[in-house]
Structure formats: structure tokens, C-alpha cells
Amino acid sequence: MAPRCEIFSQGEEIVTGQTVDSNAAWLSQQLIAAGFELTRHTAVGDHLEALVGLLIEISERADCCICTGGLGPTGDDLTAEAVAEAFGAPLEFDAEAMDQVESIFKLWNRPMPAVNRKQAYFPSGAVRIDNKWGTAPGFTVNHNGCQFYFLPGVPSEMKKMFQAGVFPQLQESFSLSPLKKVTFRTFGLGESAIQERIESIVFPEMVTVSFRAGLPEVELKLWFPPEQDQQEIEVLSSAIASALGNQLISVSDGFGPPKGIVEVVSELLTEKSHKVALLETVSSGLLASWCVTRPWLLESRVIPSSELLNRDFELEGCSETERALSLAKLVRQKSGADYGLVQLWSFDPSLLKEKRRSMELVTALSTCDGETHHITKVGGSLDRKQNIAAASLLNLLRFHLGTAY
Length: 405
Fold this sequence. Notes:
Layout: E1 4-10, H1 12-15, H2 22-34, E2 37-44, H3 48-61, E3 64-68, H4 79-87, E4 91-93, H5 95-107, E5 121-123, E6 127-129, E7 138-143, E8 146-151, H6 155-173, E9 180-187, H7 191-198, E10 208-213, E11 217-224, H8 230-244, E12 248-252, H9 261-272, E13 276-280, H10 286-291, E14 297-302, H11 306-313, H12 320-335, E15 339-344, H13 349-353, E16 359-367, E17 370-378, H14 382-401
Parallel strand pairs: 1-2, 1-3, 3-8, 13-14, 13-15
Antiparallel strand pairs: 4-5, 6-7, 7-8, 9-11, 9-12, 10-11, 15-16, 16-17
Helix pairs in contact: 2-6, 3-4, 9-14
């Protein structure tokens, strides 16, 4: 039987909805992947009595609990005090922890306020979890057979401390049988379309199927019990990949995220040492911002209006498709890139502002072997239209380069 684990988030901002509890979501993924049975998420505001009561309750029903928040220096940071009261473990000063907090302030070239001394007090018997990335050390204690881990609420610090200090302890302390997982990332297919494509495939009884919708990529996830035969997983994965066809971007057979379209295209371009020049219209430089650090991006340009387009390229009288193909060729030739990518639309601002109206998007690719294009209808909000317009350009190039998974 898998050990039972709970997640406990402290903070008035969490309870009132001012802050989305992304920590709990991330921790859930890590713990389930490790082999825990995750039984509850609980959030409590900055109230000592409520915190004390919840800590006692959790200690009586769970094998493990990961707690975030409440380790700061201010009066509303009550985690250490609550643990001390709930478990009858008076607070004690940790000189080494104080040195670590002071060193962080020296690194920042700032004087340490006296209130930060509070962060060096831990319940008696607690084991410190060092924080190399901020001023709030964590700690772990055991009560009633439940192992508690207390981490700061700052997501970047919490994640690093969990990976470096907590996860290795969990692996040593608990008998874990990690689930097996395979994730398929697709482009241009909705959840229902994916379901239709895999409808005829027979899944083993204990396999759990789930979807994660993104923009414009959708993931299909398969969860297998620890004892599932690896060969069966591979046969099933192959059948699904075949059913999804060329709209499958990548496959991940572990708990890391599958590669998105930017990563897949980047690997293919880097492998070939090829360069790309972009001309964006409706996406307004969004694609260039995704790729700005990539060595294959040779040149990018944004043209927001048809007047500027006609002024700079003198292509009046052509259809949208003809203009897109001609522009892709010009962009490639003038830049000296291996590939020229262009997106065009009607430049009617009302199409962007109104969610119910769709726009016709033309994407074009030019290579030394010629030009190709794709036409699609895109609806929804401005953000959705721009994201799909940007990703569609890369997808056209992906089709040309071939898949990388």
C-alpha cells in the first residue's frame, strides 16, 4: 500500500484567492510520480489556533505531509510557532541557520533587519532544511509517525529545496513504488479529436488516461501501475503514436514534461545547423520572443499593417496566399537564411477584437527547394489567435523538417 501524503499550504493570500496555490499543484505531481497516495490539499490562513489544530489532525491520519509558507520574518508567519505548540516542542535558536540567513543578506549587499532573526528558531528536535536561495530555512519533524517537511512559500525556493533536501529523504524513509507514465504532446488536435483517434485501441484495465489542454498543444497522459510490463507499455505507446500521426510533436516516457514545438524544432534546426528568418504580422513578435535565445534565429521582423507591408514589399494585387509565398521567398533570400517563415491575414482589426469572429491565417515557408503554405481558420480571444498564429509558423517548419520524437 502506498504511503499517504498530504499537502498543507499556509497563508491568508492562499485562502482568500489573492494568490493561486501553484506550489500544491507542483508538489502533487512530484509526490504522485514518486509513488505516494496523495489524500488531501488543505489551506489555512494566518491563524495560530487553526494551524495548530490542523497539524494535530494531519499527524493522526497521514504518513507524510509537505507544508509550504509561513516561514518568513513577519508577525503573520506562524508555522514554527504552530508546530512548537501543536507538538509540544519549544522553539530553539539555531546559530548555523542564523549564519546562513546573514550570508544571504551579505550576498544581496543589504543589511539584515533584526526581525529576520526569527527565521533561525525551530521547534526542539527539528532537523533544518538548508535554503541556499533565500532567507527562510525549512525544517522537518516527526510526530505520531507522520513526517512533516516545512518549506518556504516562494515557489522557486520551495522547488529547489524539495528537490535537493526533501525528495532524497522521502526516497530513503518510505518504501515507494513509482507509477509509470507516458505523455504524448500533440499540435492542432483537441481532446475530443484525440479521443476519436485512439478509440479503437484496447487499453489494459489498470491504465488511467487523462488530457491536459494547452494553447495550441494538448497532452495525452497514460498512467500505469508500477508492475505494468514495459513491453506492453511500448506496444501501446507505438499504437497511439501511429494513431496520432504527424500531429504528434513529442513523447515523454517519464515524469519530465514532453518537448514542446519550440524545443522540437530547435533540436532539428540545430542538428542541421540551419538558420531561420521570420516575418510576423498578427502574432506581433510573439514567435521571435519564444526563440530569441536560439542560435538558429537569424532575423525577425514585425509588420502590423497592410499599408506597411505594401510599402516595403510592393505586392499589391496579389492574393493572400500569393503574397505569403512571395514574402517567404524574399525574406529568405534577403537574410541569407535557410528558411523564410511568414504569416499573413486580412489586417482587419475587428477580427482580432471579437472572440466570435474567426480570421483566415496563411502561413508560408520558403526553402532552397521551393515554397509551401498552409491556410487555417483561427477564432477566440486575441491571446489565443496570436499564440496559434505564432505556433503555426513553427509547425509548418516542423512538417518540413520531420518529427524529432
